[in-house]
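[audit] Reproducing an earlier prediction to check determinism. Same input, same settings, fresh worker. If the tokens differ from the archived copy the diff job will pick it up downstream; this log only records the rerun itself.
[audit] input (59 residues):
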Amino acid sequence: MDYITVKEAARKWGVSTRSITYHLVDGRIPGAVKKGNLWLIPIAAEKPADSRRGKRYKT
């Protein structure tokens, strides 16, 4: 399986590296593994949904 780094995922999804790291720590990106202090994200991983958009924002 091929992996990408946090920086590459941030560029691919158009978000900050901090946002990606937050999702990784919270376990929202399936298949991601941590090797030392480096996160490896599967190439086929999808951008996690924005969890701030809860029930009160739905129309």
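[audit] rerun output stored. Observation attached for the diff report: Residues 21 and 27 are 10 Å apart (CA to CA).
[audit] end
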